[in-house]
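Below is how a single chain appears once it has passed through the pipeline. First comes the sequence as given, then the structure the pipeline wrote out for it. We keep one example in the README because the format questions we get most often are answered faster by looking than by reading.
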Amino acid sequence: MKLLSLISGGIDSPVAAYLMMQKDCEIVFVHFYNFTHARQAVKSKVEQLVKILTKYQKGQACKLSMVPFAEIQQQIIGIIPAKYRMIIYRRLMFTIAEKILEQEKAFGFVTGDNVGQVASQTLTNLTVIYKAAKKPMVTPLLGFDKQEIVDLAKKIGTYETSILPYSDCCSFLIAKHPETRAKLEMIEKLESLLDIPKLVQLGMGKAEIKISN
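Resulting structure:
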């Protein structure tokens, strides 16, 4: 079974991808980047994480789609209140990633989400975020504690790369205290102020594909 992993550059998402590789899933990757700082360092970091994970793919190369998100975020920031931006960032990522998933003929998504770790990862918010996509979500780390994830990252060799500094799209220009109990109706009302098809096309039109052997 093929799954699409949204790999962030942090500790969790590479571990989630590894766990599903261990279940004989073929993983393809997508990374959304905002190169406002340290452009090459961020790009190299994500490519290195995918390269490390390739050895667990049982001889298959790993495909990585790099999707620019900075211009999309600027449009969101101009319209959406800071309190809700993280949720809308992530929903739009899934909307764009689902187009890649369909091209890859993948079954669903695998994410590194872990309940309560950050504001967007309350069960309420995750439910709202996941409703942006039509395909199934596989969340192998949902009930893990952080130390379990760190231990696995060290075991598989991704930890030292994951902790290198990088610019995380989801935390770009958000409120100090983001919404933790988002309501779908409110989020959809805010999204109606955006030209979602145009933003999706903006991301897809500039995506780059990398192959890691």
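The longest helix spans residues 82-104.

See the next section for the split statistics.
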